[in-house]
Amino acid sequence: MTAKQPIVEMRNIVKRFGSVEALSGVSMTVRKGEVLGLLGDNGAGKSTLVKTLAGVHDPDQGDIIVRGQKVSPWTPMAARDAGIETVFQDRALAPQHSIVTNIFMGREITNGLGLLKVQEQIDEANRLMREIGFTSKVFNPESTVGHLSGGERQGVAIARALYNKADVIVLDEPTTALSLTETQKVFRFVEAVKDSGRTVVFIGHNIYHVWDIADRFFVIDRGRTAFEGEKAQFTGADHLIQLMHQLAETGKADTTSLRPVVDAVA
Ligand SMILES: Nc1ncnc2c1ncn2[C@@H]1O[C@H](COP(=O)(O)OP(=O)(O)OP(=O)(O)O)[C@@H](O)[C@H]1O
Ligand SMILES: [Mg+2]
After folding, report:
1. What is the DSSP string of 95-124?
2. Fold of 6-91+167-257
3. Distance 177 CA to ligand 2 centre (A)
4. What is the pLDDT of residues 19-60, one digit of tens each?
5. Is the CB of 183 inside a 6 Å radius of any atom of ligand 1?
6. Residue range 50-78, pLDDT digits in tens
7. What ligand has the least distance to the C-alpha of 44?
8. Does ligand 1 come within 6 angstroms of the Cβ of 22?
9. Is the CB–ligand 1 distance for residue 59 below 6 Å?
10. How far is the CA of 124 from the centre of ligand 2 (A)?
11. Rounded Cα distance, 135 and 68, in Å
């Protein structure tokens, strides 16, 4: 296994909401070309961590380092400039509108007079949908999003994220409300994004699902890093689950059972 190059490093991030400390010094690195599975109980701070990664929250303390350079202030625009696109848990697709309208909403392709370049948008939407492996013959860019299944809607949200040439796509619980078939559609979209050399940060509740899709795992607990590890460091999904159970029961996971990282960063 070759060490992957860091794209974004979040160092000692602290984020408070009034008296609630949602993040108490979390350090998480996102590497090029990986699917990073972010796990943790309800309220552990996963959404707060990815909202911070997206620049929605400027951390109270800590640094964000993009490709080796500290970026401050850290804003949604700075995150977008860094190639980070997020599909939020409370995401907003407009179901009454078409796929193409949803992909380009707020960043339409226009000509010099500000008129929509309709055909160009349709062609680009077709390209993006093919890129993530959207294979349905029933749907085309002009289909209404409200007619799509849950997994396909996630596909539209991913296509929308890709449109901005994102290097890192963050998906906050994209499969929580979905059936197994629909979840598998989302997995195929994630695989396609990974195969294109991009990075995906994937938050999920179902540990087996996250196990299947991720290369590396980062577990937070009550605003702190509990443990992290590459897939190859675990004997299997049950090993990861065992550590998560231990964490829930005792507040601490004993990671001495993790295999050492092979071929660590030189
Ligand atoms: N905007 C906010 N204002 C106040 N408190 C917040 C805000 N956002 C998050 N919190 C608090 O921060 C803590 C972490 O919440 P967060 O949404 O990050 O958890 P999570 O791991 O995403 O949980 P879930 O699995 O339920 O989505 C919780 O105690 C939550 O109530
Ligand atoms: Mg959340």
Report:
1. TTSBHHHHHHTTS--B-TTS-B-HHHHHHH
2. Rossmann fold (3.40.50)
3. 13
4. 999 999 999 999 999 999 999 999 999 999 999 999 999 899
5. no
6. 999 999 998 999 999 999 999 999 999 99
7. 1
8. yes
9. no
10. 31
11. 38
